[in-house]
Design a protein that fits this description.
The chain has 128 residues and is of the alpha+beta class. The chain contains four helices and five strands; from the N terminus they run αβββααβαβ. A five-stranded antiparallel sheet has the order 1-2-3-5-4, with helices on one face. The structure holds adenosine monophosphate. Adenosine monophosphate binds next to loops.
């Protein structure tokens, strides 16, 4: 089991009580799609497509910029390799998918732990 205290810490202020931190600590449940040493993937509770999976790295990071600026290239690469592995596992490589990463107020980010949305399983439609 992961202790959030043992999660590597980034440069930004990180809220240990955000909902994804609680999911990482297994304090609240999720429908898990994939887990490895560096990342966790689970179904979005309010899916916007037939397939809507969220992927989070197991480090303390508020958003994309915090993640890529606070951690070494190996940590960053391992996370994005895991994203690709999950895309493989979901069998959506050929049919296609959309990766979304919201950041900050203008990006519409709700949960302050960096995450990617994997949307697939049907035509996702225009960007807005
Ligand atoms: P964002 O707006 O990019 O921060 O996206 C946050 C996402 O987290 C939304 O799509 C929510 O539906 C999703 N979400 C919030 N709480 C949970 C939860 N407990 N389990 C799974 N997904 C969640």
């Amino acid at each position: 089991m992961i202790s959030i205290k043992n999660l590597p810490k980034g440069n930004s202020m990180y809220d240990n009580n955000n909902i994804f931190a609680k999911i990482l600590r297994k304090e609240i449940p999720c429908t898990q799609v994939h887990e490895d040493d560096n990342s966790l993937f689970f179904n979005d509770i309010n899916p916007q497509a037939k397939i809507h999976v969220l992927g989070i790295p197991k480090v303390q990071c508020v958003d994309f910029t915090d993640f890529v600026s606070s951690y070494d290239t190996n940590t960053i690469a391992l996370f994005f390799k895991s994203v690709d592995n999950v895309i493989d596992k979901l069998n959506i490589k050929e049919s296609g998918y959309r990766l979304v990463c919201n950041s900050g107020d203008h990006g519409g980010q709700e949960v302050p732990h960096f995450h990617v949305h994997i949307l697939a399983g049907e035509k996702i439609g225009p960007m807005r």
